[in-house]
């Protein structure tokens, strides 16, 4: 049976990253310098047409999440999905109490995979929490978090995936059920009052210092000893890294940080007072 579970979860990872159809990927041709070509593409777009060109995935970069697919339901890459699987399997094997949460879900791929793992192992007493504004990143709050002063991620429309679209993605995999719950809104508003008693896995993907700190402040006290804290943007975004290090220092967290790939890290909580 373990082979069947692994086969299903491997297929899920290949689908979520679009590895399975990576050779057929295309990118939209969008000329910026040539006014005539730009007018042609605008005319075609008005007719519901677009010019595309082949852009097959780069396998080595898809593994590490550096090759972003326009069709994938996650941008984290295979290594970070492997890490989620490793953590959840260990949580199940050692009966670490608590639910699973990701803060900042994009198209939902990471949380879809969490739900798939629970499904594969027949776990019915844990919830996957899907926390996101579904409007993209927040505007920097420079007064509270000066580290975010010059951040412009809030202008990225690509990061603003609607709530209904994420739910639809869960449905496509047959994984939208009562074990999936959504926390819609900014982390500073939703997480402090979220009806979560205990967590076994916390995965942070909020990019900003403020979003990362808000999530840590509300969720880390609920993380069980033996549970895992994963940070997606630790290596990629200095403000995120600083928030993690600042929180660890101020709360006396000294568990070893383990590198997943070029940006992702995690640690296993081994001590500390649980809320």
Your description of this structure?
The protein is an alpha/beta fold. It folds into 2 domains: 35 residues, no CATH class; 192 residues, Vaccinia Virus protein VP39 (Rossmann fold, 3-Layer(aba) Sandwich). It is 36% helix and 15% strand. It is built from 9 helices and 9 strands.
Secondary structure elements and pairings:
Layout: H1 2-16, E1 26-28, H2 35-46, E2 52-54, H3 59-64, H4 77-93, E3 99-103, H5 109-120, E4 128-132, H6 163-172, E5 180-184, H7 187-190, E6 199-204, H8 209-219, E7 223-231, H9 238-250, E8 258-259, E9 265-268
Parallel strand pairs: 3-4, 3-6, 4-5, 6-7
Antiparallel strand pairs: 1-2, 7-9, 8-9
Give keywords.
single chain, 275 residues, alpha/beta, Rossmann fold, 2 domains, seven-stranded mixed sheet, two-stranded antiparallel sheet
Summarize the structure.
This protein is of the alpha/beta class and 275 residues long. It is built from nine helices and nine strands. It has a seven-stranded mixed beta sheet with strand order 5-4-3-6-7-9-8, with helices on both faces. A two-stranded antiparallel sheet has the order 1-2.
| Strand order in the largest sheet | 5-4-3-6-7-9-8
Based on Cα principal axes, name the global outline.
Answer: globular
Task: Please describe the biggest sheet, giving its number of strands, its sense, and whether it closes into a barrel.
Answer: 7 strands, mixed
Series of secondary-structure elements, N-terminal to C-terminal: HEHEHHEHEHEHEHEHEE
* Helix content bin: 25-40%
What Rg do the Cα atoms give?
19 Å
């Amino acid at each position: 049976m373990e082979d069947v579970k692994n086969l299903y979860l491997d297929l899920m990872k290949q689908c979520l990253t679009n590895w399975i159809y990576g050779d057929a990927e295309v990118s939209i041709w969008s000329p910026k310098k040539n006014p005539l070509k730009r007018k042609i593409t605008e005319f075609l777009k008005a007719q519901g047409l677009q010019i595309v060109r082949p852009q097959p995935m780069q396998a080595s970069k898809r593994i590490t999440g550096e090759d972003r697919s326009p069709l994938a339901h996650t941008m984290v890459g295979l290594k970070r999905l492997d890490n989620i699987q490793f953590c959840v399997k260990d949580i199940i094997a050692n009966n670490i109490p608590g639910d699973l949460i990701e803060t900042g879900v994009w198209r939902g791929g990471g949380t879809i995979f969490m739900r798939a793992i629970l499904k594969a192992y027949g776990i019915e007493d844990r919830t996957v929490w899907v926390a996101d504004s579904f409007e993209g990143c927040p505007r920097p709050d420079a007064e509270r978090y000066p580290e975010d002063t010059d951040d412009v991620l809030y202008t990225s429309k690509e990061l603003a995936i609607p709530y209904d679209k994420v739910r639809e993605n869960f449905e496509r995999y047959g994984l939208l059920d009562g074990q999936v719950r959504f926390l819609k809104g900014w982390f500073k508003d939703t997480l402090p009052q979220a009806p979560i008693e205990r967590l076994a896995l916390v995965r942070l993907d909020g990019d900003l210092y403020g979003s990362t700190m808000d999530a840590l402040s509300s969720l880390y006290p609920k993380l069980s000893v033996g549970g895992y804290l994963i940070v997606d943007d630790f290596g990629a975004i200095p403000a995120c890294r600083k928030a993690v290090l600042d929180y660890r220092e101020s709360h006396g967290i000294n568990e070893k940080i383990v590198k997943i790939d070029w940006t992702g890290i995690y640690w296993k909580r081994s001590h500390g007072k649980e809320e």
